[in-house]
Amino acid sequence: MGNSGTLAKYLALGVASFLSAKPARRKRLVGRKVAVLAADGFEQVELFGPAKAIHDEGGEVEVLSLRPGKIVGMNVDVPGRRVRVARTIREANPGEYDALFVPGGFIGPDFLRQSQEVREFVRAFDATGKPIAAICHGPWVLASAGVLRGRHITSWPGIRDDLVNAGATWRDEAVVRDGNIISSRGPQDLPVFTDALVDFFTGTKPTPERPWAPAASSPQRSAPPALALAGAAHLPKVEQARHALGLTAAFVVGVAALPVLRSLAAFASRRS
After folding, report:
1. Four-point Cα dihedral 147, 153, 154, 157, nearest 10
2. pTM of the model
3. Which residues of the chain fall below pLDDT 70?
4. 3 state DSSP class of 247
5. What is the CA angle 148-149-155, rounded to 5?
6. Which of 37, 46, 189, 262 is 20 to 30 A away from residue 111, measured at CA?
7. Facing residues of 152 across strands?
8. Is 55 labeled as catalytic in the residue annotation?
9. d(CA 70, CA 88)
10. Which homologous superfamily does the CATH classification assign to the domain defined by 33-211?
11. What digits encode the pLDDT tens for the residues 100-120?
């Protein structure tokens, strides 16, 4: 095959590749701004996972909190990563955001629910009918804001009674939607919840509302989730082991570097 034949071959392959290429999928949250309401002690995986999914779809994420700086996350009962706060709740205006997300954690939502400014922010947001998502202990904040009466919700099973006493109907399900609020039980439901949250925030494929009748709460659990109990027992030991390994590695590196440091010191003394 001559040069002209080879050129024709590659040109044909290029045209075929162009014609068969799929157009880039449009990101569904471009131009949308999501407020993530969190405080020290938020559950790390429940913030970072959904926030990444929102970002991957082109959405803008702003973490709002009670104080400026960085707030610390938790892995059940072990301190984890920090995340920078974009604005304090006092500086934030509900009108600037298209959606609200409240992650869980045993500590963070309890701090948030005690703040009058947080409660007013949530009430103002709900009054607009904009989408609100909450997971695990996050619905605590919605209960204290007084927006759950007559609505269906799910959460971490341990706060079921608080939500029922706030006037909600509690459902033991992975994802529950009622009007402009979508909720989930905890980390075990993150894959399905994250997909539902993105769909809910786009408004293109919202989680269907159930025909809630009769309005009855799911019964209380007979025991805490076994996975949570195991995590609370073993995660501190894992963290201690990781810290010990880090110290050991530092010691080994230091010992290995001693001959080099001695050689450098001897060389410097000869030059002086």
Report:
1. 70
2. 0.76
3. 1-24, 204-215, 231, 235-272
4. helix
5. 40
6. 189
7. 169
8. no
9. 11
10. Class I glutamine amidotransferase (GATase) domain (3.40.50.880)
11. 999 999 999 999 999 999 999
